[in-house]
């Protein structure tokens, strides 16, 4: 399906570029044009019904586009307008549950995209700006450039020049952790001054709150997911289970509401699902079972 979408997008982009090179007279009134088209269709249908069957010699194909096709293309892009333009000029990387990918941006900045995440940027990236939008979680190794590198998530902006850091946007929470360099974080909803985050610091806040004060990361392998680890510090069991679901593309259920508030602290090796569940069972002193394609803690 993804390859099919890319093929369709490529063909639409080619059509867009071709249509921009065609010089046409002023377009006719769309209502009149549509009425004439309907009349032509009706006339052709009548001719088809009344004319006897005939054999026609083969005609040579003309590469010149027919006027009706060009008009149809122009009308289509006129109606679609800005959404079509954005679709054709935007690049996207998307991951599902249980999937992680790595790729380079046009400025050679390296990106690692975690599960259930999406990163988009314009095709003109690095020409006049370096702006990306993120939903989910990604680790950035940003190269220095002539334009600031900006990550946008709704009203929150993260601005850097050249650095290594992690951005996490899950539900209503945002977390930024810096391993190298300096990052500026601002929230348009609060209109506060940008908060500076330096090497070895992180900040966590709600989308409706100001970023607050940075804190020390406290672990040399952070964020854990790029090292194939889970790092939890007083996290509720319900949150921990969601992280495991994202990583391994499984479903986990808590048998009672009381289990949700059990807190988990520790580092768990995330290479193997069975080992993760066994460790979690030991940390929470709770058992689990597998039934109907679902893991249940009880």
Under CATH, the topology of the largest domain can be stated as Jelly Rolls
Given as residue ranges, the uncertain stretches (5+ residues, pLDDT < 50) are 45-63
| CATH level 1 class label of the largest domain | Mainly Beta
Annotation, overall tally of beta strands:
18
Q: What is the strand content?
A: 25-35%
Q: Can you tell me the number of structural domains?
A: 3
Q: Over all CA atoms, what is the radius of gyration?
A: 27 Å
Level-2 CATH architecture of the largest domain: Sandwich
User: Which range best describes the helical content: under 10%, 10-25%, 25-40%, 40-55%, 55-70% or over 70%?
Assistant: 25-40%
Shape: globular
Helix vs. strand class: alpha+beta
Major sheet, described briefly? 13 strands, mixed
For the residues shown, what is the average pLDDT? 82
Helical segment count? 6
> What are the secondary-structure elements, in order, as H or E?
HHHHEEEEEEEEEEEEEEHEEHEE
Termini gap: 39 Å
Task: Report a brief summary of the structure.
This protein has 298 residues and is α+β, with helices and mostly antiparallel strands.
Describe the structure.
The protein has 298 residues and is an alpha+beta fold. The chain has three domains: 1-36 and 66-88, no CATH class; 101-216, Jelly Rolls, CATH 2.60.120; 228-297, Phage tail protein beta-alpha-beta fold. It is built from six helices and 18 strands. The chain is globular and about 60 Å long. Residues 45-63 have low confidence and may be disordered.
